[in-house]
Amino acid sequence: MLLKDKICVITGAASSHSIGRATAILLAENGAKIAVLDVHGGVVDAAAALAEQYPASGCMALQCDITSQEECEAARDAVIARFGRVDALIHSAGIMKPAKYNEISPAEYELVMGVNLRGTFNIVTAFATTMAAQKSGSIVNVASVAAQRGGGLFGGAHYAASKGGVLSLTRTLARELGSANVRVNAICPSLIATDFVSEAMSADRLDELSTAIPLGRPGRPEEVAGACMFLASDLSTYMTGATLDVNGGIHIH
Q1: Which of 88, 215, 223, 248 has the greatest number of beta carbons closer than 10 A?
Q2: Residues of the signal sequence (predicted)?
Q3: What is the CATH classification number for the domain harbouring 42?
Q4: Residues 6 or more apart from 73 whose CB is under 8 A from it?
């Protein structure tokens, strides 16, 4: 199995149809020991379901608000106390608020930037410290095609800007952590059929947006999970500072 006995932490895994949950399932199927993290209490049920389906995963739940540096460090400490080390962090937690630039309130701007950018900094640096000390590790940040093409599908200017910041942060940390044998990469999905998307728009609107995608359909969470597993695994040991596009061809560059 590709990740046998690797210790992997996955954020944003509470929702049943999310990139985080799909990634947790795929990693567990491939032998990883996993911890799932989310701000929502549903992460406890998610961990219980994963542990029942994949007993060897030893899945643990971490309820954590990533906008809090202290909570991120506490989550890291809990993983180390349980498993002794951490081999991969797949960070997919985030928030999206569709709005035109002149409709974004200061409160909404702070919320989106706080979760998506400051939250990424908090959770990544917490685990990067441990990985640097053990001289190994892989960090995967889930950004968005919105960061590359300036929005245009779903989400507002604040969302695109926050995910652009995630890409810059990823590249900077890749440079800083390379000498410690810690890799930092990013994934840019496009329109993915998650719970959030299905709840935020009608099926007709989803079909309309899909006409702009060369593959003609939204992506599935498990299709993004496959890219996450590749970057977390030893198949990608000479990749750092890279961005993988999982976008159905909506942005070819």
Answers
A1: 88
A2: none
A3: 3.40.50.720
A4: 126
- Name the nearest CA neighbour of 25 among 188, 223, 187, 219: 223
50: in domain: yes
Number of domains in the chain: 1
Specify if 87 maps to a domain.
Answer: yes
Confidence of residue 195 (pLDDT cuts 50, 70, 90): confident
Residue 170: which domain range?
7-190+227-236
Whether the CB-CB separation of 251 and 145 falls below 8 Å is answered with yes
Task: Give CA–CA dist 253/249, Å, rounded.
Answer: 9
Domain-located, residue 218 = no
Backbone conformation region of residue 7, classed left if phi is above 0, alpha if psi is from -120 to 50, else beta: beta
Orientation of helix 106-113 relative to helix 157-177, angle to 10°: 30
Question: Any idea which residues carry the catalytic annotation?
Answer: 159
Q: Is residue 60 part of a domain?
A: yes
Q: What pLDDT, in 10s, does the model give residues 143-177?
A: 999 999 987 667 799 999 999 999 999 999 999 99
